[in-house]
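Hemerythrin
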Amino acid sequence: MAGIAASDADVVALLMRQHGDIRNLFDEVEKTTGDERRAAFRRLVQLLAVHETAEEEVVRPFTRANVPGGDQVVEDRLKEEREAKELLSRLDGMDPDDPKFLPELLSLRLDVMAHARAEERYEFNHIRRHADQARLASMASALKAAEAMAPTHPHPGTESAAKNLALGPLAAVVDRTRDAVRKAMGKDG
Ligand SMILES: [Fe+2]
Ligand SMILES: [Fe+2]
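Predicted structure tokens:
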């Protein structure tokens, strides 16, 4: 987003940058084919898993406690995330070169981007206005710990099926992300 310096201590800037990374990965999946598309789609799945898990741990508790009508806002976002996850796992079981893959991907993209806009409007704005410095800093360090789990910017040509496989199944990515986020926020006990 223009005008926002992506300061490492700015949790909202970090979240917005991840929304941008997600959008770019959708672009990449759409414009590639075969193994390249498979690799880009793996990165998209990883980033979505990491991003949504971090939001569950970092953003949702803030919203519940600080945003007027926060419980309803959280329910709405969780519903959108559940629906996206279902579509994502359907796509995950498809051959990326199947003619049905791109229409399904586009549908996921529209859902994910509408979800991201709702977060920016109903949650991130409140974080920016109402979170104190200490809270912002602890949220930012949690986000950075989560981001370390998602290889969004691989060097071209270094990606391999083996490397992707080594990242493990999605449930494990979610678990590792949650552990890293909780540890960064000092709640791992
Ligand atoms: Fe989300
Ligand atoms: Fe998000």
